[in-house]
Amino acid sequence: MIDEVPYLMHRIDAFEGMLQRAWDRLLSRKPVLLLLIGSDLSMMEALNSYDRPFHQRGREMVVGPLNPADIGDMLDLDPASAFDAALVTGGLPLVCAEWRPGATLWEFLRESLENPISALLVSAERSLAAEFPPQAMSREVLRAIGTGERTFTNIARAAGGIAHTTLTRATDVLTQKRVVAAELPLSQKPSKERRYRVADPYLRFWLAFLDPHMAEVERMRGDLVLNRIRERWPSWRGRAVEPLVRDSLARLLPDGELPAAPAIGGYWTRSNDVEIDIVGADRGPVAKRLLFLGSVKWLETSPFDSHDLAALHKHRAALTDEPVPLIAVSRSGFSCSGLQGTYGPEELLGAWRGRASTPPG
Questions:
Q1: CA distance 242 to 262
Q2: Which residues pair with 343 in a beta bridge?
Q3: How confident is the model over 15-58, as pLDDT tens digits?
Q4: Is 264 helix (H, G, I), strand (E, B) or coil?
Q5: What pLDDT score was predicted for residue 354?
Q6: Other Cβ atoms closer than 10 A to 308
Q7: Other Cβ atoms closer than 10 A to 114
Q8: Which has the closest alpha carbon to 69: 361, 360, 261, 354?
Q9: DSSP alpha helix (H) spans, 47-200
Q10: Does domain 68-240 fall into CATH 1.10.10?
């Protein structure tokens, strides 16, 4: 078993050729199972590419993080709290292991922030140090995206006004390594309004709330960091949960009159005067047919109401003239009718177990 293979590939010339010769001349004739392990997916996938020594010599297996249902079971959390935990831990087992079963989000954060070497605080820094050297511009760009900048122009400004070519190179590296997702609006017309987001929920949380204030944690003032998280948590969570909601719907559908959607994304305009959280279509990013549109309202006590439905109708009219079905996702229930599908935390969590826990209304 060889761990940190991307590091060896980067540091040792002809590492793959050396390993191939060892396998062909010695190991393949013995009862040996060779496991090559690495966290850099792009480099690990390259091992099996056409022009590399190990092409078609083995099997690839991606070991993903714990999903929201796994997290809820492991930590004894209700469905809504399980999604909160997924956004904070990213499903990383090392971080989840420090969450006491049954503890609330705020209890976990308080305990983690009291310990400067907790997994919540140090795991991201160790991962970034392995992926990107400290002087790499990719880290500055990642920090800009992690603080909430989503457009190319705003990211360049937040990263210190770096040049267009430098930013392009950095975003290419980040997307190739799957650290950052580069997304286009999903609609029936092509668009160049690309937006960027940190793909891993845990890293997104760490960059937004923990990385800028590590000095305070080291001075044992985690209470100040916790207060900032409390203030920003509702608005940050409302956007951060959207990719997880889309993934849940992709697993849940078809459901009743709603079909399975080969592509589920979002829609926005440059000015953000029209922004739709959920767009289901036959393909993406340029669809032939829109299958449904939807809105996400992920607040503690405020249900999805008639005002939210009216806004969704308005945005649908700006996107299409067709009577595309409308759905809504809410953490706190619904107080209006007229939707073709409604989903709460229970239904979404059930999708990760292969079925909805209760039929959606």
A1: 17
A2: 329
A3: 888 888 888 898 888 999 999 988 777 778 888 888 888 777 77
A4: strand
A5: 61
A6: 20
A7: 13
A8: 354
A9: 68-75, 79-89, 93-96, 105-113, 119-131, 137-146, 152-158, 164-176
A10: yes
User: Which amino acid is located at 313 in the chain?
Assistant: H
Domain ranges of the chain: 1-63, 68-240, 248-351
Mark 57-92 as b/e (b = at least 16 C-beta within 10 Å): eeeeeeeebbbbbbbbebbebebbbbbbbbbbbbbb
Tokens in use for 255? Answer: 């459901």
Three-state DSSP string of 270-334? CCCCCEEEEEEECCCCECCCEEEEEEEECCCCCCECHHHHHHHHHHHHHHCCCCCCEEEEECCCE
CB 81 within 8 A of CB 102: no
Q: Which helix (H) or strand (E) holds 343?
A: strand 341-343
Diameter over CA atoms, the chain: 71
pTM: 0.87
pLDDT tens readout for residues 86-130: 999 999 999 999 999 999 999 999 999 999 999 999 999 988 877
Contact between residue 40 and residue 131 where contact means Cβ atoms under 8 Å apart? yes
Cα–Cα distances (Å) from 54 to 33, 37, 39, 95, 279, in that order, read 15, 14, 18, 33, 40
- Where does the pLDDT of residue 12 fall: very low under 50, low under 70, confident under 90, or very high at 90 and above? confident
Are the beta carbons of 146 and 198 closer than 8 angstroms? Answer: yes
Structure tokens at 110: 């308080």
Phi, psi of 273 (to 5 degrees): -70, -20
